[in-house]
Amino acid sequence: MDASVAEAAEALGISPRRVRALAEAGELPARRVGRAWVIDLDRRQPPRPPGRRLSARSAWAVLGLGHEGLSRSERQRARERQGRLADLPPAALARRAEAHHVVAHPAALRRLADDPRIVLGGVSAAAHHGADVIALDRVEGYIRAADLDDVRREYALGPPADGDSANVVLRVPAPVWPFPEGERYAPRLVVAADLRDAGDERSVRAAHGLIA
Fold this sequence. Notes:
- By secondary structure, the chain is α+β, with helices and mostly antiparallel strands.
- It folds into two domains: 2-40; 95-211, no CATH class.
- It is built from nine helices and seven strands.
- It has helices at residues 5-12, 16-24, 56-62, 72-83, 109-114, 122-126, 145-154, 188-198, 201-211, and strands spanning 2-3, 30-33, 36-40, 97-102, 118-120, 139-143, 168-173.
- It has a four-stranded mixed beta sheet with strand order 4-7-6-5. Strands 1-3-2 form a three-stranded antiparallel beta sheet.
- It is globular and about 55 Å long.
- The termini are far apart.
């Protein structure tokens, strides 16, 4: 079955950016049609990372947040997993938030990054923690579910056209908002998890540096 990048990303449970990276690397059956990738989902799917997905609450506990309501044994497991965070598959922490990959006009990116409703994460917060990765043409961050629709309207955020890449990733945490009021940057381990989600070599290397 032929699918667009967006359709393949939804079917495979990975980001459109990761689909394009797999296609370009030849690890996903795909062909170019003009500027767009067409993915053949019937021929092969990329291998899913081993291991089960943690619950949202457990994922945030591993990342050092959201310990409220956890039992002593759950806290202990979270500490053990945090100690081997670099060895956990990225999918283990996927339930911490729902990621929305959208496009903003380049002129709006700076205002979006400065919006107090967004806690910067991923590549937008990497330099803050000393990671050697930066992307001035991209914004990543966490946002409350109640603010998502308003922000999408105010900044005219929409889905990427086929063949184009999203330049904004907004993650809606579950089950509750994990960040202190007024926080501008996600903590180091959260940023590392975001960078691992990106899947490209440079981001993953930066993530491992933050974890170490």
